[in-house]
Design goal:
This protein is about 30% helix and about 20% strand. The longest helix is centred in the middle third of the chain and has 28 residues, at about 240-270. The chain is globular. Strand 7 (about 130-140) and strand 8 (about 140-150) form a beta hairpin. It is an alpha/beta fold.
């Protein structure tokens, strides 16, 4: 069965549009609309460009698709809207099935994992009228929902509330997570989110309802929250004060404690099972680390597309399972578009770039990094998910706090408190990091450094002594794995700084042209793109 999973929308609140193609249970492509339109978040659109990219990667025609699955089971006429859109753009439409938003998250978490049986958890802001679900999952029998969390008790909305209070925008929750280690959790947020025996209780009085919020970009803070905290909502252009750092630390601690309380209930009710976890809240890698450290489950699996950008994957998996196929786990996240050397050279020549052919991109890149260069690295198929994993990355040496400042100021143009991630070969991870789990291929967990004060890792260890680690296995990304090995030979350190190949406010680069525009628009030193090395005329 050829199944196309779709996620997108016709309202501004629906975001992270994507398309996923599963053939006979195997994921062959997962593409995100924002990468092609260059509009971060892809708010309020259906995934036209992502669909075309999936078809191209799979080498099939639109007419070969046999079933389409979307979230939105509670949306009236949503399948009619999708059908009309697809007929208009592609000339026809296969049968459409709608599934529940949270069920799609659960399917993403479970079927992408290596587990045969598991307890599954989804936590996000809201979707199809709920903010989360718990399910038992079995590859032979599917998903059985055992508990729902209503939107009125959304822990995702709690964290978004605090994000807006701190002067950040929709989708900036990761900034709060990055800011939190600079503060102390001294602000009592229990009136907003109070722990209970089986989870938490959220007080909705702190959310603005009059006038109602019409857009995800509007602040959602009620004056009661301002009165509780004793300080006004921070304006985005105002400095981040020690008070704001303490609020961020307190919000993070409150979130972690609430998730742990729910996890303790899950583990005691369904003991002995691994946990498969998705939803937007599952992007909080610091909270995930606390969950892993609690040792409540035999394993914790978080997919690379835990947020709404992974809903199309869950939908496609559900469609495959319903057709009698056996959904196959993800072996890696490199599921987007790829570009051959001929296409890349054509773009380089058309733009008058200074470039030369190289035989070993991994060795050239590693040598540049070891010599102190900050480079763009563009190889193979793009990663699915919010985090660059070595195919659309900016890479630099990991040592010295000055490297972190340089990348933030000259290249990423972003806040100084934001951390950078280290990438390391899987087999060498324990040399520098205290691993709670055998591997961390998708940067889903923060991990303590063995020697937090080691200047050799000063650019990739956060102020709290942890890193959002990526471990790289040779079978998942051979080229990136070789780069890390060569860098270790040259520098003595098997780690490189890895951050997404984009500028602040932009999606990760997708095409060779995107890479060139970003390369020439910031302070990168060199670009290794396919088998070509691109420099800047000086």
């Amino acid at each position: 069965m050829i199944v196309l999973g779709l996620h997108g929308g016709v309202t501004i609140r629906q975001h992270e549009a994507s398309a996923c193609l599963v053939i006979d249970g195997r994921v062959v492509a997962l593409c995100e609309e924002e990468r092609y339109t260059r509009q971060k978040g892809a708010y309020g659109v259906l995934p036209f460009h992502a669909i075309k990219a999936c078809l191209k990667q799979a080498g099939i025609a639109w007419e070969e698709i046999e079933r389409i699955v979307t979230p939105g089971s509670t949306y009236a006429r949503f399948d009619d809207i999708v059908r009309a859109y697809l007929v208009h753009n592609f000339g026809s439409c296969p049968p459409i099935e709608r599934v529940h938003h949270q069920t799609a998250h659960l399917a993403t978490a479970f079927y992408a994992s290596p587990h045969e049986r598991a307890v599954c958890l989804s936590l996000d802001a809201t979707g199809d009228g709920t903010a989360g679900c718990i399910a038992l999952a079995d590859r032979n029998y599917g998903l059985q929902i055992v508990r729902e969390i209503p939107t009125t008790q959304s822990i995702g909305f709690f964290y978004t509330l605090m994000t807006h209070y701190l002067g950040f925008s929709d989708g900036d929750e990761y900034k709060v997570m990055g800011l939190a280690p600079y503060g102390r959790p001294t602000v009592d947020l229990s009136p907003v989110l109070r722990l209970q025996e089986e989870g938490w209780a959220l007080d909705r009085r702190y959310f603005r309802t009059d006038p109602p919020v019409q857009s995800p970009f509007e602040p959602i803070c009620h004056n009661d929250l301002v009165n509780l905290l004793g300080q006004p909502v921070r304006r985005p252009d105002n400095p981040v004060l020690p008070f704001h750092k303490d609020v961020a630390a307190s919000a993070q601690r409150t979130l972690e404690n609430a998730i742990l309380r729910l996890a303790e209930w899950i583990a005691s009710t369904y003991p002995g099972l691994p946990l498969c976890y998705a939803g937007g809240v599952a992007l909080n890698c610091a909270a995930n680390a606390k969950l892993a450290a609690a040792d409540l489950f035999s394993d914790i699996y978080v997919p690379p597309v835990a947020s709404d950008r992974g809903l199309s994957l869950g939908c496609a998996y559900l469609g495959a399972a319903a057709a009698g196929d056996c959904p196959q786990p993800l072996a890696h996240a490199y599921l987007g578009s790829g570009y051959d050397d001929e296409t890349i050279e054509g773009e380089l020549a058309a733009n008058g770039c200074s470039y030369r052919r190289i035989d070993d991109p991994a060795a050239v890149a590693a040598d540049l990094i070891a010599d102190g260069a900050i480079i763009g690295f563009f190889q193979g198929r793009s990663e699915a998910g919010a985090r660059a994993l070595g195919n659309r990355s900016i890479l630099a040496r990991p040592g010295g706090i000055e490297v972190k400042h340089l990348v933030n100021q000259r290249i990423k143009f972003r806040e100084e408190f934001r951390p950078f991630a280290p990438a390391i070969q899987s087999e060498r991870a324990t040399e520098h990091f205290r691993m709670a789990q055998p591997e961390s291929p998708y940067m889903c967990f923060t991990t303590p450094a063995v020697t937090p004060s080691d200047d050799a890792l000063g650019a990739v260890v956060h102020v709290d002594g942890t890193s959002r680690l990526q471990t790289v296995a040779p079978d998942a990304n051979p080229l990136f794995h070789r780069l890390l090995g060569r860098h270790a030979e040259r520098s003595g350190t098997p780690v490189v700084l890895n951050t997404s190949f984009n500028l602040k406010g932009q999606p990760i680069v997708e095409t060779p042209r995107d890479a060139l525009m970003t390369f020439y628009g910031c302070g990168l030193d060199q670009l290794v793109i396919g088998n070509w090395l691109v420099g800047k005329l000086r």
